[in-house]
Every structure is written in structure tokens, then in C-alpha cells.
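Before the break, one more example. Copy the sequence into your notebook; we will annotate it together after we see the structure.
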Amino acid sequence: MTDPAPGAGLPRPGKVVLLVCDSLGVGEAPDAGDYGDEGADTAGHAAAAVGGLALPTLGSWGFGRLTRIAGVEPVDPAAAVVGRMAERSAGKDTTTGHWEMMGVVLDQPFPTYPDGFPPEVIDAFADATGRGVLGNKPASGTEIIKELGSEHLETGKPIVYTSADSVFQIATHKRVVPLDQLYAWCEQARALLKGEHAVGRVIARPFDGDPGSFTRTKERRDFALPPAGPTVLEALEAAGVRTMGVGKIEDIFSRRGLVGSDHTGDNETSIDATVRFLREAGEATFVFTNLVDFDMVYGHRRDAEGYARCLERLDARLPEVTAELGADDWLFITADHGCDPTAPGTDHTREFTPLVAYSPGGTSGRRLADRTTFADLGTTIADLFAVPPVGPGTSLASDLR
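Here is what the structure looks like once it is written out:
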């Protein structure tokens, strides 16, 4: 008989998987007004834009109880436990959201650069590369390579840009700058960006093609700051849980707390890797997956129809994930922030994120009260594995069955 997790009254699982649908918000957060995001609702507005979604799996799990989603009824009781989580940390970026899930709450947001990077930053980077810099302004990644890609081909100068997030992004053409050189430049930028300029992430943005048809490729890499405190991931690894990252998870956590990873580049390969890791699990295993397409391909590009179809595609593939789970195992689905594809601009949106908890062995089917921190999720996962909690979260394990 399996050992119960302390305080949960549940058998200890063999496998737990957490799917982060990057940017899948479910309605404005209580403090959305402080961020200029009143009325934001990523899931709801994407569904409305296409006249309704077909989500048979998520619908049966109660996803329609979280916000008004056209085509998805608020099933009650449902097959999963659902709720919404508000972010306690300052900010609305990928790093902040993922860290908070794993127990690290930030009081101050990472620095942002609405006017581009100051001379002490950009000049130091230009000196480090020896090639100068193009851009140095906030921009859409697809638009700036249209604007500056030809000049980059002629000069070899890297394109540097930022966004409303705390990011230093470097775009280079694969024929001009080999990937290993681009990654080396990112590491140099990461070393330069410290103190007051310690941005959350330096991001490698390779692209290919010819003028008029440049396309970004899937060799993106994120060079994040190390977590600002101990994480649930590290606690799980220390307790002997096989912790596996999929997608950019290894970058977000600077590879801390992970036994292994697969740095996939899109949703489809990320789900493939998730299923593979679950299938290969021969011991207590936690699979932590980021599904980047929601945000990178559709949210920031304000493609509401694409966002909606991406959610339907995830729904169609969820049975492949749950087929690898036993009666005592759990699948959690959440997001790190919102990115309403109908909102003005291209920024993330400050929203509630979903909390969906499903087990083949059955759940209580409850609709939980709104949570005040993403850290409740990581604490719950730790509790299920009988690992001492990390951070300020409160376990929900006792509400799951």
C-alpha cells in the first residue's frame, strides 16, 4: 500500500504532471487596473472571437466554470477540481509566474525598458560582440526582423530589442551568426545585465529566410536569472523525485532542481516529450511542461483565432497525457500570466490563471474559491509527494478527492 501524503489523506502518486499553458488567463485579476488590464480575459475573448470553442475534455473537467467561454458549458459537478489563482508577485511575466508557482514570490518587478536600454548597457554589449547593435527599442519580434533583417544581413550587427516584459532579446540570422555564437552573446549579455539592470531573461531569437519572408526558428533559448530563493523543484529533487522539465522550464529555473529535460520548441513536441517522460517513469516522477505557442505564436501576435484553435488542439491531445497516469496520479493545468489576444498592444495581461486538477482515480469535482498566490499549486504538488513545503503557499491536496 502506498504511503499517504501528510495532511492530504491521499495515496502518494507515482506521477504528477504540470502543464503550463503559457499566457492562458481566465479573467482580469483583482489588481488588473494597476497594470492597465481592466477587462482582460484571454480564454473568454479567444473563444468569443471564433464563435465558440469545442473543448470536450476540458469542458467535462469544468473549465467552463472559470470564466465565460463560448461553446463550453459550466459543468457542475465536473470530472476535475477547478479554480483560479491570482499572482501575488509584482509583474506579469513568464519568469515571475513560474517562480511563484514553485514558491518564490517577488516584491519588486524586474526592470523594463520602454525607451530601450541605456548607453551603459547597450554600449557594453556592443563592445563585447565587436559588431555594434541594431534596434535597441521595444518591438514585436516578427516586426523588427522585417524592419531590420536586411540591414543585419549586410552588416552582421545583432538586432537587440525588448518588450513590456523584462527581456533583452537578441535576433540574428542563422546564415550570418551561427547558433553557438548567438548563445555565447546571450551569455555575455546575461553577465553584463546585473544590479539595477538585472532583467528577468536574455532571449536568443534566431531567424532564417530572405528579405520579405524572414521567419523565426525554433532554436530560441532563454537565459534567465537563477531563482531568487529555494523552490519546490529543488525540494522535490532533494527528496528523490525524478524532476523532468519540458520546453523552456530548464531555462526559467537555470536548470536548478531538474534531473533531466527536453528543450522542445513548440506545443506539439512538448506534449510528445511529456508523454514520453511519463511513459518512461519507473519511480516517483514530476513532469513540468511549458506550452509556449499560446503566448509566443498567438498571444503576442494578437491572433485570437489561432489562440482558440491552439486551445482546441491541446484539448484533443490531453487524453494522450492522462492515458499515462494511474489512479493515484495527477495532472495539473495552469498558466503563468495572461496575454489577451483582443487587448491593445502586444503585452501580457494581468489575469487570474486557471487551476485544473484531474486524476484518473476520480476527484471531488469542486470549484475552489479564488486563490491569492500561484504558490498554492507548488505547495500542493509537494504535499502529494510528502515533501515539506517551500514558500508561502497553502496545500489544496485535501480538496482534490
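Residues 15-107+225-399 form a domain with the Alkaline Phosphatase, subunit A fold (CATH 3.40.720.10). The two ends are 18 Å apart (CA to CA). Try to locate both features in your own notes.
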